[in-house]
């Protein structure tokens, strides 16, 4: 399906690949969404250092991604997000209630499952701090109605795996017992990343994960 953007008439395509929606623009922007919790933006290298906003500056410096709309660097994610509101009518983002406090019976299970980030990804720890990802994994897994599905635990671990891939540290973490929904192949695309295929039937549908 081909569509025209309203502003500058640049074309983009929208297609389904397995359980993903992939939007590709001719300007060099690709958006991949699993219609749940996984969201990935790819931008052509020509935009390096030329963008700003909630997705960062694309300047290969993670330390300045929380740059507010005013140009000032802030430390709070909430403060950062609220500076990028499109209008004053939009309410401020507020701190979410800790999901593990809402479902305390799931906390110990969530911590056990998410410990894979601490145990299996040790070789990546010097490149990418695992603790924020571990904390997010625990919170997300506590929030799930049933643990271990791709909407919480698997997506949270995959987010750390993706960050490690970008740092050129590659960990094979999926097993028949852990997030076995995906069959992952190791391929080269811009940088070394995991390309996952939904199943053998869709072997020609490559998805970044």
Automatic annotation (TrEMBL):
SMART domains: C8 (SM00832). The chain crosses the membrane at residues 185-208. GO terms for cellular component: extracellular matrix; extracellular space. The keyword 4Fe-4S does not apply. Residues 1-91 form the VWFD domain. Keywords: Disulfide bond, Glycoprotein, Membrane, Transmembrane, Transmembrane helix. InterPro entries: Mucin_vWF_Thrombospondin_sf, VWF/SSPO/ZAN-like_Cys-rich_dom, VWF_type-D. This is VWFD domain-containing protein. It comes from Poecilia reticulata (Guppy).
